[in-house]
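Work Package 3 (structural annotation) set out to generate three-dimensional models for the target panel prioritized at the project kickoff. During this period the team completed the workflow that converts sequence records into C-alpha coordinates, so that structures can be stored uniformly alongside our sequence database. As a representative example, we reproduce one entry of 303 residues exactly as it appears in the project archive.
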Amino acid sequence: MPSGTDIVGRAGGQRLQPSAVLELLKPVTWFPPMWAFACGAVASGAAFLDVYPMIALGILLAGPMVCGMSQAVNDWFDRHVDAINEPQRPIPSGRMPGRSGLYVAIGWTFASLLVGAALGPWGFAATVLAVVMAWIYSAPPLRLKQNGWWGNLACGMSYETLPWLTATAVLAGSAPDPKVVLVAVLYGLGAHGIMTLNDFKSIEGDTRFGLRSLPVILGADRAAKVACLFMAAPQAVVAALLLAWGAPLQAAMVAGVLLAQGLLMRKLLRDPRGLAPWYNGTGITLYVSGMMVSAVALSGGMP
Protein backbone atom coordinates (compact mmCIF):
# COMPACT_ATOMS: atom_id res chain seq x y z
CA MET A 1 0.00 0.00 0.00
CA PRO A 2 1.35 3.51 -0.82
CA SER A 3 2.47 5.64 2.07
CA GLY A 4 0.21 8.41 3.38
CA THR A 5 2.92 10.99 2.86
CA ASP A 6 2.55 11.00 -0.90
CA ILE A 7 -0.84 9.45 -1.58
CA VAL A 8 -4.38 10.16 -0.42
CA GLY A 9 -6.21 8.24 -3.13
CA ARG A 10 -5.99 6.73 -6.60
CA ALA A 11 -7.96 6.96 -9.81
CA GLY A 12 -7.02 5.73 -13.23
CA GLY A 13 -3.49 4.90 -12.08
CA GLN A 14 -2.86 8.48 -10.97
CA ARG A 15 -1.73 9.35 -7.48
CA LEU A 16 -3.26 12.16 -5.48
CA GLN A 17 -0.56 14.29 -3.91
CA PRO A 18 -1.38 15.99 -0.59
CA SER A 19 0.36 19.14 -1.83
CA ALA A 20 -2.20 19.26 -4.63
CA VAL A 21 -5.01 19.61 -2.09
CA LEU A 22 -3.42 22.74 -0.64
CA GLU A 23 -2.88 24.08 -4.15
CA LEU A 24 -6.55 23.38 -4.93
CA LEU A 25 -7.56 25.58 -1.99
CA LYS A 26 -5.42 28.43 -3.43
CA PRO A 27 -3.91 30.07 -0.31
CA VAL A 28 -2.98 33.15 -2.39
CA THR A 29 -6.72 33.97 -2.61
CA TRP A 30 -7.36 33.84 1.14
CA PHE A 31 -6.04 37.30 1.96
CA PRO A 32 -8.97 39.47 0.73
CA PRO A 33 -11.70 37.88 2.88
CA MET A 34 -9.35 37.56 5.85
CA TRP A 35 -8.49 41.25 5.54
CA ALA A 36 -12.17 42.13 5.17
CA PHE A 37 -12.97 40.21 8.35
CA ALA A 38 -10.19 42.10 10.13
CA CYS A 39 -11.70 45.38 8.85
CA GLY A 40 -15.06 44.36 10.26
CA ALA A 41 -13.46 43.52 13.58
CA VAL A 42 -11.85 46.95 13.72
CA ALA A 43 -15.07 48.69 12.65
CA SER A 44 -16.99 46.95 15.44
CA GLY A 45 -15.00 48.88 18.04
CA ALA A 46 -14.54 45.72 20.10
CA ALA A 47 -11.59 45.43 22.48
CA PHE A 48 -9.33 42.94 20.69
CA LEU A 49 -7.83 41.51 23.88
CA ASP A 50 -11.31 40.53 25.01
CA VAL A 51 -12.40 38.85 21.77
CA TYR A 52 -9.19 37.71 20.08
CA PRO A 53 -10.23 34.00 20.04
CA MET A 54 -13.36 34.92 18.06
CA ILE A 55 -11.34 37.13 15.72
CA ALA A 56 -8.80 34.36 15.10
CA LEU A 57 -11.57 31.85 14.44
CA GLY A 58 -13.33 34.26 12.11
CA ILE A 59 -10.17 34.91 10.11
CA LEU A 60 -9.64 31.14 9.83
CA LEU A 61 -13.23 30.77 8.63
CA ALA A 62 -13.04 33.61 6.09
CA GLY A 63 -9.77 32.52 4.51
CA PRO A 64 -8.64 28.88 4.69
CA MET A 65 -12.14 27.51 5.22
CA VAL A 66 -14.80 29.38 3.21
CA CYS A 67 -12.51 30.94 0.61
CA GLY A 68 -10.56 27.70 0.26
CA MET A 69 -13.83 25.83 -0.16
CA SER A 70 -15.00 28.23 -2.84
CA GLN A 71 -11.76 27.74 -4.76
CA ALA A 72 -12.15 23.96 -4.65
CA VAL A 73 -15.75 24.21 -5.87
CA ASN A 74 -14.71 26.57 -8.66
CA ASP A 75 -11.81 24.40 -9.78
CA TRP A 76 -14.01 21.32 -9.98
CA PHE A 77 -16.65 22.93 -12.15
CA ASP A 78 -14.00 24.80 -14.16
CA ARG A 79 -11.80 21.80 -14.79
CA HIS A 80 -12.46 21.81 -18.56
CA VAL A 81 -11.79 25.55 -18.81
CA ASP A 82 -8.64 25.22 -16.70
CA ALA A 83 -7.38 22.53 -19.06
CA ILE A 84 -6.93 25.40 -21.53
CA ASN A 85 -6.25 28.40 -19.29
CA GLU A 86 -4.24 26.78 -16.50
CA PRO A 87 -3.44 23.14 -17.37
CA GLN A 88 -0.99 22.98 -14.49
CA ARG A 89 -3.84 23.24 -11.93
CA PRO A 90 -4.27 20.14 -9.72
CA ILE A 91 -7.38 18.73 -11.43
CA PRO A 92 -6.56 19.12 -15.15
CA SER A 93 -2.95 18.10 -14.53
CA GLY A 94 -4.12 14.80 -13.04
CA ARG A 95 -2.59 15.43 -9.62
CA MET A 96 -6.12 15.23 -8.20
CA PRO A 97 -7.51 12.23 -10.05
CA GLY A 98 -11.08 11.08 -10.45
CA ARG A 99 -13.61 12.92 -8.33
CA SER A 100 -11.16 13.75 -5.56
CA GLY A 101 -11.48 17.48 -6.30
CA LEU A 102 -15.25 17.30 -5.83
CA TYR A 103 -14.86 15.34 -2.60
CA VAL A 104 -12.50 17.99 -1.21
CA ALA A 105 -15.02 20.70 -2.12
CA ILE A 106 -17.86 18.88 -0.37
CA GLY A 107 -15.78 18.02 2.69
CA TRP A 108 -14.48 21.58 3.04
CA THR A 109 -18.06 22.85 2.75
CA PHE A 110 -19.21 20.86 5.78
CA ALA A 111 -16.05 21.73 7.69
CA SER A 112 -16.70 25.43 7.05
CA LEU A 113 -20.25 25.11 8.38
CA LEU A 114 -18.93 23.50 11.56
CA VAL A 115 -16.45 26.32 12.12
CA GLY A 116 -19.14 28.90 11.34
CA ALA A 117 -21.43 27.37 13.95
CA ALA A 118 -18.75 28.06 16.57
CA LEU A 119 -19.17 31.81 15.88
CA GLY A 120 -22.78 31.83 17.05
CA PRO A 121 -26.00 32.56 15.14
CA TRP A 122 -24.61 35.51 13.16
CA GLY A 123 -21.47 33.63 12.18
CA PHE A 124 -23.35 30.49 11.20
CA ALA A 125 -25.93 32.39 9.15
CA ALA A 126 -23.17 34.22 7.30
CA THR A 127 -21.34 30.93 6.65
CA VAL A 128 -24.47 29.35 5.19
CA LEU A 129 -24.88 32.35 2.90
CA ALA A 130 -21.23 32.21 1.86
CA VAL A 131 -21.44 28.49 1.12
CA VAL A 132 -24.58 28.95 -0.97
CA MET A 133 -22.97 31.81 -2.90
CA ALA A 134 -19.85 29.73 -3.58
CA TRP A 135 -21.82 26.84 -5.03
CA ILE A 136 -24.26 28.86 -7.13
CA TYR A 137 -21.35 30.94 -8.46
CA SER A 138 -19.57 27.91 -9.90
CA ALA A 139 -22.08 25.06 -10.19
CA PRO A 140 -24.89 24.51 -12.67
CA PRO A 141 -27.66 25.31 -13.17
CA LEU A 142 -27.20 28.92 -11.96
CA ARG A 143 -23.41 29.16 -12.43
CA LEU A 144 -23.34 32.91 -11.90
CA LYS A 145 -19.82 33.13 -13.25
CA GLN A 146 -21.21 32.58 -16.75
CA ASN A 147 -22.11 36.27 -16.68
CA GLY A 148 -19.33 38.68 -15.78
CA TRP A 149 -21.72 41.31 -14.41
CA TRP A 150 -23.50 39.07 -11.92
CA GLY A 151 -20.64 36.71 -11.21
CA ASN A 152 -18.19 39.46 -10.32
CA LEU A 153 -20.81 41.14 -8.15
CA ALA A 154 -21.35 37.88 -6.25
CA CYS A 155 -17.59 37.51 -5.78
CA GLY A 156 -17.11 41.07 -4.59
CA MET A 157 -19.88 40.81 -2.03
CA SER A 158 -18.67 37.41 -0.83
CA TYR A 159 -14.98 38.37 -0.61
CA GLU A 160 -15.31 41.83 0.93
CA THR A 161 -18.78 42.77 2.14
CA LEU A 162 -19.88 39.53 3.79
CA PRO A 163 -16.72 38.90 5.89
CA TRP A 164 -16.70 42.56 6.99
CA LEU A 165 -20.33 42.48 8.14
CA THR A 166 -19.92 39.03 9.67
CA ALA A 167 -17.09 40.22 11.90
CA THR A 168 -19.00 43.29 13.02
CA ALA A 169 -22.16 41.32 13.77
CA VAL A 170 -20.35 38.50 15.58
CA LEU A 171 -18.31 40.80 17.81
CA ALA A 172 -21.17 43.21 18.50
CA GLY A 173 -23.74 40.46 18.92
CA SER A 174 -26.21 42.43 16.83
CA ALA A 175 -26.87 43.69 13.32
CA PRO A 176 -24.13 46.04 12.08
CA ASP A 177 -24.61 49.80 12.14
CA PRO A 178 -26.07 51.11 8.83
CA LYS A 179 -22.91 53.16 8.23
CA VAL A 180 -20.79 50.04 8.48
CA VAL A 181 -23.16 48.22 6.12
CA LEU A 182 -22.96 51.03 3.58
CA VAL A 183 -19.16 51.21 3.56
CA ALA A 184 -18.82 47.41 3.42
CA VAL A 185 -21.22 47.23 0.48
CA LEU A 186 -19.33 49.98 -1.34
CA TYR A 187 -16.02 48.15 -0.99
CA GLY A 188 -17.74 44.96 -2.16
CA LEU A 189 -18.94 46.81 -5.25
CA GLY A 190 -15.41 48.06 -5.84
CA ALA A 191 -14.17 44.48 -5.75
CA HIS A 192 -16.27 43.87 -8.88
CA GLY A 193 -13.48 45.61 -10.77
CA ILE A 194 -10.82 43.49 -9.08
CA MET A 195 -12.63 40.35 -10.20
CA THR A 196 -12.75 41.67 -13.76
CA LEU A 197 -8.98 42.10 -13.78
CA ASN A 198 -8.62 38.49 -12.63
CA ASP A 199 -10.56 37.39 -15.72
CA PHE A 200 -7.95 38.71 -18.15
CA LYS A 201 -5.79 35.63 -17.67
CA SER A 202 -8.52 33.27 -18.89
CA ILE A 203 -9.95 34.97 -21.97
CA GLU A 204 -9.15 32.09 -24.35
CA GLY A 205 -10.73 29.34 -22.26
CA ASP A 206 -13.70 31.48 -21.26
CA THR A 207 -14.40 32.26 -24.91
CA ARG A 208 -14.23 28.62 -25.95
CA PHE A 209 -16.57 27.39 -23.22
CA GLY A 210 -19.05 30.25 -23.37
CA LEU A 211 -18.20 31.98 -20.10
CA ARG A 212 -19.24 35.59 -20.64
CA SER A 213 -16.63 37.35 -18.53
CA LEU A 214 -16.36 41.08 -19.10
CA PRO A 215 -13.08 40.82 -21.05
CA VAL A 216 -14.87 38.34 -23.35
CA ILE A 217 -18.05 40.34 -23.93
CA LEU A 218 -16.54 43.84 -23.87
CA GLY A 219 -13.05 43.25 -25.12
CA ALA A 220 -9.88 43.84 -23.10
CA ASP A 221 -9.73 47.63 -23.43
CA ARG A 222 -13.36 48.35 -22.54
CA ALA A 223 -13.37 45.76 -19.75
CA ALA A 224 -10.32 47.42 -18.19
CA LYS A 225 -12.05 50.80 -18.25
CA VAL A 226 -15.15 49.30 -16.62
CA ALA A 227 -12.98 47.63 -13.99
CA CYS A 228 -11.27 50.91 -13.14
CA LEU A 229 -14.62 52.66 -12.86
CA PHE A 230 -15.98 49.97 -10.56
CA MET A 231 -12.91 50.22 -8.33
CA ALA A 232 -12.71 54.01 -8.23
CA ALA A 233 -16.31 55.18 -7.89
CA PRO A 234 -17.15 53.40 -4.60
CA GLN A 235 -13.95 54.67 -3.00
CA ALA A 236 -14.83 58.23 -3.99
CA VAL A 237 -18.23 57.76 -2.35
CA VAL A 238 -16.58 56.35 0.80
CA ALA A 239 -14.27 59.37 1.02
CA ALA A 240 -17.25 61.71 0.70
CA LEU A 241 -19.20 59.79 3.34
CA LEU A 242 -16.32 59.82 5.82
CA LEU A 243 -15.99 63.57 5.36
CA ALA A 244 -19.73 64.03 5.93
CA TRP A 245 -19.59 61.80 9.00
CA GLY A 246 -16.91 63.90 10.69
CA ALA A 247 -13.76 61.95 9.83
CA PRO A 248 -11.83 64.39 7.59
CA LEU A 249 -8.42 62.80 8.17
CA GLN A 250 -9.58 59.34 7.13
CA ALA A 251 -11.52 60.84 4.23
CA ALA A 252 -8.33 62.51 3.00
CA MET A 253 -6.40 59.26 3.34
CA VAL A 254 -8.97 57.32 1.32
CA ALA A 255 -8.92 60.07 -1.31
CA GLY A 256 -5.13 59.89 -1.34
CA VAL A 257 -4.98 56.15 -1.97
CA LEU A 258 -7.62 56.59 -4.66
CA LEU A 259 -5.49 59.25 -6.36
CA ALA A 260 -2.49 56.92 -6.28
CA GLN A 261 -4.60 54.17 -7.81
CA GLY A 262 -5.68 56.56 -10.54
CA LEU A 263 -2.07 57.07 -11.56
CA LEU A 264 -1.55 53.31 -11.69
CA MET A 265 -4.78 52.85 -13.65
CA ARG A 266 -3.48 55.17 -16.37
CA LYS A 267 -0.59 52.77 -16.90
CA LEU A 268 -2.87 49.72 -16.69
CA LEU A 269 -5.08 51.00 -19.50
CA ARG A 270 -2.13 51.09 -21.90
CA ASP A 271 -1.90 47.29 -21.87
CA PRO A 272 -4.71 45.72 -19.79
CA ARG A 273 -3.93 42.10 -20.62
CA GLY A 274 -0.24 42.45 -19.95
CA LEU A 275 -0.45 44.70 -16.90
CA ALA A 276 -3.45 43.22 -15.04
CA PRO A 277 -1.19 41.02 -12.84
CA TRP A 278 1.03 44.03 -12.12
CA TYR A 279 -1.95 46.13 -11.07
CA ASN A 280 -3.22 43.33 -8.83
CA GLY A 281 0.05 43.55 -6.94
CA THR A 282 0.13 47.33 -6.64
CA GLY A 283 -3.26 48.99 -6.99
CA ILE A 284 -5.08 46.35 -4.95
CA THR A 285 -2.68 46.93 -2.05
CA LEU A 286 -3.77 50.57 -2.02
CA TYR A 287 -7.42 49.53 -2.27
CA VAL A 288 -7.32 47.31 0.81
CA SER A 289 -5.34 49.96 2.70
CA GLY A 290 -8.26 52.32 2.21
CA MET A 291 -10.57 49.64 3.57
CA MET A 292 -8.72 49.53 6.87
CA VAL A 293 -8.55 53.32 7.08
CA SER A 294 -12.34 53.38 6.68
CA ALA A 295 -12.76 50.69 9.32
CA VAL A 296 -10.72 52.72 11.79
CA ALA A 297 -12.92 55.72 11.11
CA LEU A 298 -16.07 53.69 11.68
CA SER A 299 -14.74 52.34 14.97
CA GLY A 300 -14.45 55.84 16.41
CA GLY A 301 -18.10 56.29 17.20
CA MET A 302 -18.72 58.99 14.60
CA PRO A 303 -21.84 61.07 15.11
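Confidence is low (pLDDT under 50) at residues 1-13.
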